[in-house]
Amino acid sequence: MILAYSIAPLGVGEDVGRHVAEAVRVIRASGLPNQTTALFTTIEGEWDEVMAVVKQATDAVMAIAPRVSIVMKADIRPGVTGAMTAKVESVERYLA
Fold first, then answer.
1. What family is this (predicted)?
2. CATH code of residue 37
3. Do the beta carbons of residue 37 and residue 44 sit within 8 Å?
């Protein structure tokens, strides 16, 4: 599964970087393939392991923010690995 995860802490003011960094820290420490962009952090792994990391990342932000909003989008293909990079490589081949 590939999951795009975005967390927005609410009630903490305009600068949310410190709060988002806590979620990203948990995701990176998980050891699962991941990539962070301006809007989402993408995580790849099996359903249970990805969702456990999302819960841990959310809990880390909830520990320092009174409220959070989460957006998630998933591509679920059991047994497929390496899809996070393969999808981008496919597009890049067409651009070359």
1. Belongs to the UPF0045 family.
2. 3.30.70.930
3. no
One-letter amino acid identity for 15? Answer: D
Q: Which of 18, 20, 16 is nearest to 5 (CA)?
A: 20
Residue tagged 């795009």 (tokens): 4
Burial of 27 (0-12, 13-18, 19+ CB in 10 A): buried
Count up the domains in the chain and report the number. Answer: 1
Q: How many residues does the chain have?
A: 96
Rounded to 5, what percent of the chain is helix, strand, coil?
45, 25, 30
Structure confidence by residue, pLDDT tens digits, 33-61: 999 999 999 999 999 999 999 999 999 99
